[in-house]
Each structure stands twice: as C-alpha cells, then as structure tokens.
Amino acid sequence: MSTLTIHTLETAPAESKPLLENSVKSFGSIPNLHGVLAESPGLLKAYQSLHELFVNSSFNNDELTVVWQTINVEHACHYCVPAHTAIAKMMKVDDAITEALRNGTKLPSEKLQVLHETTLKVVRERGNISEEDIQAFYEAGYEKRQLLEIVLGLSQKVISNYVNHIAETPVDAPFQKFAWKK
Fold it and tell me: How far is CA 67 from the centre of its chain?
C-alpha cells in the first residue's frame, strides 16, 4: 500500500498548483499521475516538459504511440498502458497498432516494428545497442534525430512508469475500460 498522496489543487504544494492548473486546462481534470507527481514540483514540471518535448518531436502519432507503449508494456505499467491506449484513440492511431503493442504481437508495418524493436533494445540494454541495431533502424527510414528522441520518450516514461509502480496509482475512470496486465 502506497503512502503517496494524489494531490488536488487544494492539497498540492504551492509550486505545483500552476502545473496542476495546466493539467486541468489540457485534460479537463487532474490525472491521478499528475496528482501524485505534484508532491515534487520539480518532478511534475520535468514530466510535463518532457511530455511536451516528446509530443513535438519528429515522430508522428503512430510512432509516438509505438515508443510510449513499447516502454509502458516493457515496464509493466498498469496505469500508463490503459492511459496511452485512450490517448492513442484520441490521436486517431489505428487500433491494430495499439493492440499489437498491448499484446506483444507483430506491428502492421515493418518500419513501426523496427521502431518497436529498437526502443525495446534501448530500454533493455540501457542504451548499449549494437551498431547493427542502429544500422537496421536507419535502413528502416529513421534518422539520428529519431534515435535520440527514443531516449527523450524513455526519459518521460521512466518518470511516469516508476512513479506509478511506487504509488500504485489508481487508473483514472476514463482509462479503466482499457485496463491491462502483463
């Protein structure tokens, strides 16, 4: 049982209140993850900044989803897999992509499959991927920028996945229909 608090605008530290107001503007409410992160204003700000940077990276919506969900599933994040399933639907990502990621099956395109495999290798090998893996990534049509942007996405997901494990963050009501277990 976690002892961490899911903060509201009323209970959050003063430095976190403007950040939670941003969450309300963006999502219409404060996601439970943001409420937990609010305990540490710097962590909430880092998470929100990394999210914004990754969303504005050179990846399209399908690719963003592949990176996010690959990491979420690998980290077995009970909160982020359903949340990003809902986000993928809002971003109009093909359900076949989301289901393949959730179920560990082959993705519908070779390019996305290579992105998934490269992301997994970055996570599992802690960045120590082979020259052959990097070359296969480039041959699939990706560039150096995207290789580094996987690390950006991973940075965001380490914050959310690890905090959700520590906090046992309850899945928000809108995401519960996409519940997932590894």
Answer: 8
Instruction: For residues 16 and 22, give the distance between their C-alpha atoms in angstroms, rounded to a whole number.
Output: 10
**Residue 149, helix vs strand vs coil:** helix
CA dihedral 150→90→49→52, nearest 10 degrees, is 70
Q: What is the pLDDT of residue 1?
A: 62
Distance (Å, whole) CA 63 – CA 116: 9
The torsion angles phi and psi of 78, rounded to 5 degrees, stand at -60, -25
Q: Are 170 and 5 in contact (CB under 8 A)?
A: no
C-alpha to C-alpha distance for 48 and 55, rounded to whole angstroms: 11
Amino acid (one-letter) located at 82: P
Does the pTM exceed 0.90? yes
pLDDT tens digits, residue range 8-57? 999 999 999 999 999 999 889 999 999 999 999 999 999 999 999 999 99
